[in-house]
Design goal:
Chains A, B: This is DNA-binding LacI/PurR family transcriptional regulator. Two copies of one chain form a homodimer. By secondary structure, the first copy, chain A, is α/β, with parallel strands linked by helices. Chain A is about 45% helix and about 15% strand. The first copy, chain A, contains 13 helices and twelve strands. Chain A has a six-stranded parallel sheet, with helices on both faces. A six-stranded mixed sheet of chain A has the order 7-6-8-9-10-12, sandwiched between helices. In chain A, helix 1 crosses helix 3 (about 35-45), helix 6 (about 105-115) packs parallel to helix 7 (about 135-145) and helix 8 runs parallel beside helix 9. Chain A is elongated and about 90 Å long. In chain A, about 50% of the residues are buried. At the A-B interface, helix 4, helix 5, strand 2, helix 6 and helix 11 of A face helix 4, helix 5, strand 2, helix 6 and helix 11 of B. Chain A binds a DNA duplex through helix 2 and helix 4.
DNA sequence: GTGAAAGCGCTAACAC
DNA sequence: GTGTTAGCGCTTTCAC
């Protein structure tokens, strides 16, 4: 690091021009006489000179960096969103600082603060504080503080009263797609497993579940909606509870709050040597786990690439199109695979 | 962005001190009279002032950023390495720029170049050019060019003649662990599926496989070692080929070049209604897929957190401890789960 | 213990 | 077309 790196001045001196001219050649979109341009370019080439982006950032006040805070990149839902954002950001010349909050609020705060200091041009956040049905006052204040200096965009989350960018899948619609589908193939007894009460993504789904059940005049059995969590073992636990507590009246279809929960539920069935055809399973998120699972999961898919594009566009255009619908909702799609069977005879 | 942000000069003026003093207060490790320190601190607080890290980077010539280039963060092997690196880097005050090369050499080059311009203090690279048994000349030159200005560290890769940092799991040892284990539970007919010839991580494993087979005086059947690729469908294809071409003489154990390939092999067996107990399966990498799989995979585990720590330490200490073993090899461990069964009677 | 001032490497007016 | 110059916001000698 400490080795004196070569600068625009070194190039200028050798090319017998001013630093400004070198800068113009670098920028490419200024009038420079072809002859001098060539001369400068050849010297740049000769030394493999690379302009210092930090210095450029300081003068231009743009870092071309976006911060991305999420709970855990090893979770395929997050990594699939991330990669789409990154791909699209790259086409715009932006790089991403990835910060894993590990579901730790303090860590999340720390990351947010550091990103702001690093002068990222925008922050994308998923999980954590933006998915609390009862937002934490302090956490929200931190966010709104940050929003004073740079645009913040939430993916699949929303905080009432915080006027920031938000883009999310219509999860209620997702549940609707699932239930309509299950009903269409003859199911009337439908369970919903997993999630945690108080997390928006869960609450939205549970509410939609109840409302759809009622709209279809299906039986609503409280014991068929079981909170537990978001990972595989949550799925196992919830399935176990479902089977233990409803011996006389089991559902025929099981919706998981996400793909992972369904995989847990499948495993619990496996452990109990229950024929998987006893139930139809539907996941949520269409992570790559849904394809890895055996059977492959029918699941609700986010439109990942659209989320990625919209997120970056919203963030980067935030300076121009002020207050132009900061709030985008994206339709989910039902991805039908092998985990559901048709009810025959009924 | 364009709103004039508050600077140390604003703080200085209001505190009736010089900017230098504010800077000292910020740094925290300089002698400042307690009284003035408090006064300055309170004003910093009052405005929620956050120093501009870009400006600081320019003067101090340190960005506290590390670049990480890998093929695809949605691949759990990479995300599991990444997250360990990120966690540890954070404790050192470093943030990570994550760049997905999508297995595209040009994209990889572009990322490397941009990271250098951004003045990251080091680059960690996985996949792509660093895993070619016959390295591409141009690609290697790019790397060595970059190594002139900043330290580069390869994870699970190595290029002969490139004197850069490297940290990798002893994969030959991993294969040894697997084969010794399989032999210990009575297997003598062992296949190796997946991978691509010419990719170091494959070549190392294939070579170790052959040498171990011979060391144990087991039969080496060429048709039991099948190249195909690294993903699930590669696993399916390889298993299919194994079953079709060796009808008279099938192995009893199947090693996958990685977990994903084994999951594909399992699926192919499922498709053919082959009892999974017909074969013992062993994966490689111990990604979280190994636990998700049904049955859960016995697999070779990388020591992810150790890799993360060592990688960051090597990179950040590179200025001091010049040329002190730049090359670290880490032992794998065998993670025994449910995908192998003991051969009885033999 | 504190301040003045010179950079860090680049860009952007503004002259010429 | 090209050069001069004044910053961008911070840190760091070097005086005092």
């Amino acid at each position: 690091m400490k080795k004196k790196s070569i600068t625009i001045y070194d190039i200028a001196r050798e090319a017998k021009v001013s630093s400004a001219t070198v800068s113009r050649v670098l920028a490419g979109n200024y009038p420079v006489k072809e002859e001098t341009r060539k001369r400068v370019a050849s010297i740049i080439d000769k030394y493999g000179f690379q302009p210092n982006a930090v210095a450029r950032s300081l003068t231009k006040r743009e870092t071309r960096m976006i911060g991305f805070v999420l709970p855990d990149i090893t979770n395929p839902f997050f990594s699939q969103v991330f990669i789409e954002v990154e791909k699209y950001a790259l086409t715009k010349g932006y790089a991403l600082l990835l910060c894993n909050s590990m579901n730790d609020s303090e860590m999340e705060s720390k990351h947010l603060k550091l990103l702001a200091e690093r002068q990222v041009e925008g922050i994308i956040i998923m999980g954590g504080r933006i998915n609390k049905s009862a937002p934490d006052r302090v956490e929200v204040n931190e966010l709104s503080e940050i929003m004073n200096s740079l645009p913040v965009l939430m993916i699949n989350g929303k905080i009432e009263g915080l006027d920031c960018y938000s883009i999310r899948t219509d999860e209620a619609k997702g549940i609707e797609l699932i239930i309509n589908y299950l009903v269409s193939i003859g199911h009337e007894k439908i369970a919903l497993l997993g999630g945690i009460e108080g997390i928006t993504t869960t609450d939205i789904k549970v509410e939609a579940y109840k409302s759809l059940i009622s709209r279809h005049h299906l039986p609503f059995v409280p014991g068929w909606q079981i909170y537990s969590g978001f990972d595989i073992s949550s799925g196992e636990q919830a399935m176990d509870k479902l089977l233990r507590n409803n011996k006389q009246d089991l559902p025929t279809a099981v919706i998981g709050i996400n793909d992972m929960v369904v995989i847990g539920a499948l495993r619990e069935c496996g452990r109990r040597k229950i024929d998987l055809n006893e139930f139809s399973f539907v996941g949520f998120d269409n992570t790559n786990l849904a394809e890895i699972s055996n059977p492959q999961l029918t699941t609700v898919s986010h439109q990942y690439s659209e989320i990625g594009r919209k997120a970056v566009d919203l963030l980067l255009n935030s300076k121009n199109e002020k207050h132009k619908n900061k709030d985008v909702e994206i339709n989910p799609k039902l991805e039908i695979r092998d985990s559901c069977y048709e009810m025959i005879g009924n």
